[in-house]
Amino acid sequence: MAISTTRALQAMPLTCLVLLLLQNVPGVGAQKDPDFKLQQPQGRVVVIKGEILTLNCTVSALGPIGPVKWMKGWGSSNQTIYDHKGSSPRVMRAINGSDTDFTIHIRDVRLEDAGTYYCVKFRKVILGDELFKSGGGTEVLVHARPSELAVSGPSRRAEPGQSVSFTCSASGFFPRDIQVQWLKNNVPVQAVLPHITSEQSHSSYNMSSTVQVTLTKDDVRSQLTCQVQHSTLAAPLRRTYALGQALRVPPSVSVVAAPPGAVEVNKTVTFSCRVQGFYPGAVNVTWLENGMGLNTGSTTQPAETPQGLFELSSTVTVQAAEEKRGSNFTCRVVHEDQEPVSSTGTMQVAVAAQWGPEGDILLSSPGLWLGLLLDKALLALVLFFLFKRFLP
């Protein structure tokens, strides 16, 4: 062992040998300043993921020859974070070239940067560097803000009275504690506790919260809001879902004829179809005569009501004829690919009297003949009773 040490000394340049000898001379190197101080004042630091972490360390002006390094962890598992020979691109000195201030900045902090950091002074010895003095350590806690919220609703629209599920989710936050609140039109809605899971690395958490809402037709303009609070947030995260996206209000359909009642042959009748109270505002309107499609008709564009629902009207004009007596005219409405909604009006044609060559009325049907005969018989019966009562 003595021979190998001697050979190592012989191989070293003269300057290095002088420096090594000076380390053992009283008043030089480590012995020059017996009051050498290393100050690492931070005990615990909380930093948010993505921000800059500052670790403070200062040393006194005089001390043994050797570098100052930053280490993460202690013992055999430690990791060099800063070394004057080179370090991670994310690590930089706060004051470049300073002999006393070894404060560092770590940019774009990650969750895996959590741990205990030591500022360590080394001194040169024959075979390298040996630990001379270290700080007490700074415990770094890395917290992470929740991601932007995502709120989802049903895959298909639901009608008023149906209960619909909505889900709010966030990911990548730390620590685990998180508060979720649902509001409908800014009024709190009862929901089950959020489901929280850890990511595979166990360094952050994900959250999912579900709420059930029973829809009404008045929810066309309602807002459902998911609100999340976490220790990393200065203000709650909010994401709003328009309930109209999940709602379908079926239309009411009614048909009226103008003029009402029976009309004379060759007169025109207008059947009007009112389609009311539907949402969203796209419908398809068709007219049928006795079940067969008509190519005529005029339909207005949907108009929005103050409640946010829609309405429109459609008309078809028909000329009265004997062959159309009792014909059914149906307004059929298809909304959101649902089953059609229909309403029907019936053509009523009045029976026309016909005049003979001498001015006599020719009745056009046996039924009218029968009615006339009955009328005459009734009149004769009344006259007979009157005659019998007033004659002696």
Explain this structure to me?
The protein is mainly beta and 392 residues long. The chain has three helices and 30 strands. Strands 2, 5, 6, 9, 10 and 11 form a six-stranded mixed sheet that branches. Strands 20, 21, 24, 25 and 26 form a five-stranded antiparallel sheet that branches. It has a four-stranded antiparallel sheet with strand order 12-13-17-16, with no helix packed on it. Strand 18 and strand 19 form a beta hairpin. The relative contact order is 0.09.
The CA-CA distance between the termini, in Å, is 171 Å
**Mean pLDDT level:** 86
Based on secondary structure, the structural category is: mainly beta
Residues in helix, %: 10-25%
- What is the subunit arrangement here? single chain
Global geometry: rod-shaped
Unreliable sequence segments: 1-12, 14-32
Overall number of strands: 30
State Rg.
47 Å
What percentage of amino acids are in beta strands? 35-45%
Q: Biggest sheet: strands, sense, closure? A: 6 strands, mixed
Total helical elements = 3
SSE inventory with pairings:
Elements: H1 2-11, H2 14-23, E1 38-39, E2 44-48, E3 53-55, E4 58-59, E5 68-72, E6 79-82, E7 91-93, E8 104-106, E9 115-125, E10 128-134, E11 138-143, E12 150-152, E13 163-173, E14 179-184, E15 187-189, E16 195-198, E17 205-214, E18 223-229, E19 237-242, E20 252-258, E21 268-278, E22 283-289, E23 292-293, E24 298-299, E25 303-304, E26 310-319, E27 328-335, E28 341-346, E29 354-355, E30 361-362, H3 366-390
Parallel strand pairs: 2-11
Antiparallel strand pairs: 1-4, 3-8, 5-6, 5-9, 7-8, 9-10, 9-11, 12-13, 13-17, 14-15, 14-18, 16-17, 18-19, 20-21, 21-26, 22-23, 22-27, 24-26, 25-26, 27-28, 29-30
